[in-house]
Every structure is written in structure tokens, then in C-alpha cells.
Amino acid sequence: MLRFDPFTDIDAITKSLLATGTGSNRSPRFMPMDLYKVDDHYVLHADLPGVDPGSVDVRVDGSTLTLTAHRSALSEEGVTWLAGERFTGTYRRQLSISEDIDSERIVASYDNGVLTVSLPIAEKAKPRRIEISSATPVRSAHSETEARGQIEA
Hints:
- This protein is of the alpha+beta class.
- Strands 1-2-7-6 form a four-stranded antiparallel sheet, with no helix packed on it. Strands 3-4-5 form a three-stranded antiparallel sheet, with no helix packed on it.
- The protein has helices spanning 8-17, 141-152, and strands at 33-38, 41-47, 57-61, 64-71, 89-96, 107-111, 114-120.
- The protein starts with 7 loop residues before the first helix and ends with a helix.
- Strand 3 and strand 4 (64-71) form a beta hairpin.
- The protein is elongated and about 105 Å long.
- It has a domain at 20-73 and 85-124: Immunoglobulin-like.
- The protein contains two helices and seven strands.
């Protein structure tokens, strides 16, 4: 007799999420990040500890910002692994950016395991004061009444 177990799929998903190993068979991980605004730009900090700086890649394609990095597994001869909990493989994060970002002026740096990306706000998107001009003098309601009184008199 075959019994229905509604938790079979949930157990499989849980096991795959909690799987340990060197990470080579796992899908790309997202990187934890902070994003905040300072004056006329946004700043993004992404944690990438132990990542080779040469493997870090930042790209803009239209309105998509893609951050990618890779951490290689330790592969020394004679090593007997007792635990392998640190993720190895590819980190990836994609963000939609507004057209208010000046993508030509985005800059990035990587220092002490932290990727920092500066996203400047485009000049056209910055708040500005609009000058008000007038081609003809503006009449008030009071002056309109006086003008009518002079015509009728």
C-alpha cells in the first residue's frame, strides 16, 4: 500500500538547503549587503570575505547591476577534511537600478573582504530650484475690481 506523505517534498527542500560540503555542487549564493544614500550618491557594501580580488566583477547592463565573485576551495595535497562549512564557488547578486543613477560614473573598490560600489545620482534627477519669471505683471483681484469701476464710471 502506497501512502501519501505531504512532507516528503518539504524534507527534500530542507535537506538541500542545509546540505554541507565544499560548496562546489551548490548554486550561486547571494552576498549580504548594505545600501544607503549619502548626499548625491548611493553606497553599496557587500561582504565577500576570503574572495580573491581578481575574481570580483561589477557590471551594468541597462538597468541591471550585477555583482559576481568566486572563492576557490583549498586544494592542498595530503589534506584530510574534518569540516567544510565555508562556501566555495560563485557569489552573485543582481539589483535593478533606477534611470536616476548615472551608470557612467559608477565606481567600485574591494578592501578587507568588502566590496564597495558608489552609485552617483544623475544631475537630471537631483532636486533643483525653478526660477519663476513673468512676461506681464500679475494683477490682483483688488486691482481688477478697481479697473472695472473706472470703466463703468
